[in-house]
Structure to design on (519 residues):
């Protein structure tokens, strides 16, 4: 297991899309869809804030992937991705930097 | 028979052997006697032909009989070369590859040293009870009875062998019997005009064509049963077989019938053009044999022939899933069940589980080492029907299960929690 840390710009879908209002705390760990063939678990650490709510845009955050070795060959700067829980997609983002 | 400008009449016995030759004035020119295995003895007169035993050509200088496909020695009662075919796999004499007519020369003949009248022999043995009852039946039921026998043959062979050669071979034998039977049915009619009027040569040809088309149908059926390829997107092996087998059987029929017509002296274009006679029944029979062999092969391989899916032993009553939790969450689950947000809003709402205990152990131990924490792995047993609502996907290289907040209450009502 090799951790991978990236800087990303995140958009959390509004309640119109996901059906309800939600709050996301520091340490929120959804499933990221970066590879086509699997999800990857990543923990979100917000920069300059400890939580955000659905509908927020341009949220800068670090994402720490627990299995970075599975992503190294698939992730590039500028790449778009989505994240969510199970079959629900809760937001999307852009990779700003790979740290 | 015309010899040196003179017309002679040939008189044969029930096997087709020449007993006597007479001229236009009814005088016996020559008469013959045959040993049981075909040795020709000139009883009287002059030897004016080399034809004799079952109308085959005698090679007098060598004491042999030329049966076209092979050469037979009437003293040894054996062919000089082995038979390429096993005509009746359930009859041990068939496996004696040098014997003549299943070692029964009074009953059967072998017009070409190969096989097809021997199939007629097998046909007589196998379906004689059917024939005996024909005048009591209508055509449809004759057909059904004949097909039933052939299909049972294919199914038995499929269950026992399940190799494509075995399946196709048994299909070939079954189809040969069916087509031969049908030929007899067609010739005797509903009112059973008697076996004496049956042209066994036609029966033999029908059998041979049935053999070829059945072989093709059986092979196609086996292919349909086992192939992972899709036929126009059809997943059901039976439907695939129903599509492919009649086509293969039809191709086999045309090939077989054309060959038979060529043997009968037609030129190639006529032989091909005439080969379409009876194509429909060959396709039906071949298709049925193909489907029968598909069913047999599928059940032999423990596959549902309608859906192509594996036959499972039984649906499990419960499934076990695994999750790594902190000590606090473990206490919480024990007292309150799985709750959407044990810490209020802000974290994952549903719950992630591993499909296998080993996956949970492997990933959790790495996690704990990386993040400096200590987790407990819990196992919960969930009724199978409820587990069908969960999300199954692949995450971080593991098969995981996500139970959404909607499903958590139904799980809480029925789950049992243990530490594995």
């Amino acid at each position: 297991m090799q951790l991978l840390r990236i800087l990303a710009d995140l958009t959390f879908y509004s309640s119109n899309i996901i059906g309800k209002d939600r709050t996301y705390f520091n340490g929120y760990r959804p499933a990221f869809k970066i590879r086509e063939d699997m999800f990857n678990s990543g923990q979100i650490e917000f920069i300059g804030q400890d939580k955000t709510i659905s509908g927020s845009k341009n949220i800068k955050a670090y994402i720490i992937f627990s299995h970075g070795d599975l992503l190294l060959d698939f992730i590039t700067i500028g790449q778009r991705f989505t994240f969510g829980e199970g079959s629900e997609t809760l937001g999307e983002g852009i990779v700003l930097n790979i740290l | 028979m015309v010899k040196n400008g003179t017309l002679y009449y040939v008189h044969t016995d029930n096997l087709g052997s020449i007993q006597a030759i007479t001229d236009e004035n009814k005088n016996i020119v020559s008469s013959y006697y045959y040993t049981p295995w075909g040795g020709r003895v000139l009883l009287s007169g002059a030897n004016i032909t080399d034809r004799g035993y079952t109308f085959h050509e005698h090679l007098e200088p060598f004491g042999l009989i030329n049966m076209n496909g092979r050469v037979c020695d009437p003293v040894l009662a054996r062919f000089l070369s082995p038979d390429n075919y096993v005509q009746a796999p359930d009859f041990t004499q068939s496996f004696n590859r040098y014997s003549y007519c299943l070692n029964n020369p009074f009953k059967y003949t072998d017009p070409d040293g190969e096989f097809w009248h021997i199939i007629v022999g097998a046909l007589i043995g196998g379906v004689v009870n059917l024939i005996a009852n024909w005048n009591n039946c209508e055509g449809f039921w004759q057909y059904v009875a004949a097909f039933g026998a052939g299909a049972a043959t294919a199914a038995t062979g499929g269950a026992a062998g399940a190799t494509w050669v075995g399946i196709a071979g048994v299909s070939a034998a079954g189809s040969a019997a069916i087509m031969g039977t049908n030929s007899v049915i067609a010739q005797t009619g509903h009112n059973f005009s008697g076996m004496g009027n049956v042209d066994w040569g036609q029966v033999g040809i029908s059998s041979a064509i049935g053999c070829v088309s059945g072989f093709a149908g059986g092979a196609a059926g086996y292919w349909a049963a086992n192939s992972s390829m899709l036929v126009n997107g059809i997943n059901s092996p039976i439907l695939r077989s129903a599509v492919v087998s009649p086509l293969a059987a039809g191709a086999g029929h045309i090939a077989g019938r054309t060959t038979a017509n060529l043997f009968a002296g037609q030129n190639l274009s006529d032989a091909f053009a005439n080969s379409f006679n009876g194509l429909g029944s060959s396709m039906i029979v071949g298709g049925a044999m193909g489907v029968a062999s598909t069913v047999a092969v599928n059940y032999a391989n423990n596959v549902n022939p309608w859906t192509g899916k594996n036959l499972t032993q039984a649906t499990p009553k419960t499934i076990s899933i695994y999750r790594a939790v902190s000590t606090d969450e473990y206490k919480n689950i024990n007292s309150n069940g799985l709750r959407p947000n044990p810490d209020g809003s802000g974290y994952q709402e549903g719950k992630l589980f591993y499909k296998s205990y080993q996956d949970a152990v492997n990933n959790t131990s790495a996690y704990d080492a990386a993040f400096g924490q200590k987790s407990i792995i819990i196992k919960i047993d969930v009724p199978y029907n409820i587990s069908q609502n969960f999300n199954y996907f692949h995450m971080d290289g593991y098969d995981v299960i996500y139970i959404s907040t909607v499903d958590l209450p139904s799980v809480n009502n029925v789950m049992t929690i243990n530490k594995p």
